[in-house]
């Protein structure tokens, strides 16, 4: 695996954490109850903390004098390589929870495998992050069950969110040349191998929540190679405002 490929692989992980953290931070001060406001804000902080560590490592790999702030805030939209799922608007609380449930289930399985990486930084990062992501999964899955087995209104909303977001879940398990190079080097994870276990976990939780699991079909893709939805530009306009207005500002 070349240094450039490892840089790309790391940036993809960092961008997922960064953009999801940015989305979740939008709930700060707007949560349905105080405890949930705090819970989602803490999840956002966890994601941003993970992004910081990954961007620091990526900057060292790149060796072009950029630091984590520049990688996070001063790239063009096509240079961001996060999956489409994490950039989608929050919607209502059911939509946010369904997105978090789908992603954190995948991310926990991914990090569990990444902790076995032959690359010292990636394995250490994964091992450290697993505890945080396990909480993210528990929190979101508890809410899926609560909404699904709750009132008629909550059931309808969470089922609608699950149906809508399902078409964005397939990108998590797609492999390309970068993923394959990381896998062959013993650094990365075989995303396709996670799909069956992910399906089983999702199915079990949805069944307990009296919700229907959508059937696989056509899936959106493109985020991992820099082809984003129309929502990404709005995220960056807000996220990059401080750096562009006050160059050199730090986290």
Shape: globular
The CATH C-level name is: Mainly Alpha
Order of helices and strands: HHHHHHHHHH
**Strand element count:** 0
Could you please describe the fold and organization of this structure?
It is a single chain. The protein is mostly helical. The protein has one domain (3-245): Up-down Bundle (Ferritin). Helices cover 63% and strands 0% of the residues. The chain is built from ten helices and no strands.
What is this structure's SSE topology?
Elements: H1 3-25, H2 34-62, H3 68-73, H4 93-114, H5 120-148, H6 152-165, H7 177-184, H8 195-208, H9 231-239, H10 241-245
Short structural description:
The chain has 251 residues and is mainly α. It has helices at 3-25, 34-62, 68-73, 93-114, 120-148, 152-165, 177-184, 195-208, 231-239, 241-245.
Features:
mainly alpha, 10 helices, globular
């Amino acid at each position: 695996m070349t240094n450039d490929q490892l840089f790309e692989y790391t940036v993809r992980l960092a961008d997922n954490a960064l953009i999801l953290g940015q989305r979740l931070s939008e709930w700060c001060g707007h949560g349905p109850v105080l405890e949930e406001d705090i819970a989602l804000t803490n999840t956002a902080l966890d994601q941003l903390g993970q992004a910081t560590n990954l961007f620091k490592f990526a900057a060292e790999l790149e060796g072009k004098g950029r630091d984590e702030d520049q990688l996070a805030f001063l790239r063009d939209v096509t240079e961001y390589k996060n999956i489409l799922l994490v950039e989608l608007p929050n919607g209502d609380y059911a939509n946010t929870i369904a997105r978090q449930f789908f992603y954190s289930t995948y991310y926990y399985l991914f990090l569990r495998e990444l902790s076995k990486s032959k690359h010292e930084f990636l394995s250490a990062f994964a091992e450290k992050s697993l505890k945080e992501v396990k909480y993210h999964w528990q929190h979101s899955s508890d809410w899926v069950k609560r909404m699904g087995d709750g009132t008629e209104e909550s059931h309808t909303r969470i089922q609608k969110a699950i149906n809508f977001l399902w078409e964005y879940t397939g990108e998590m398990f797609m492999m390309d040349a970068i993923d394959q190079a990381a896998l062959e080097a013993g650094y990365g994870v075989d995303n396709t191998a996670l799909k069956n276990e992910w399906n089983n976990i999702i199915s079990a939780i949805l069944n307990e929540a009296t919700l229907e699991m959508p059937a696989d079909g056509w899936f959106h893709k493109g985020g991992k190679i820099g082809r984003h939805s129309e929502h990404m530009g709005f995220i960056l306009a807000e996220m990059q405002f401080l750096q562009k207005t006050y160059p050199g500002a730090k986290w």
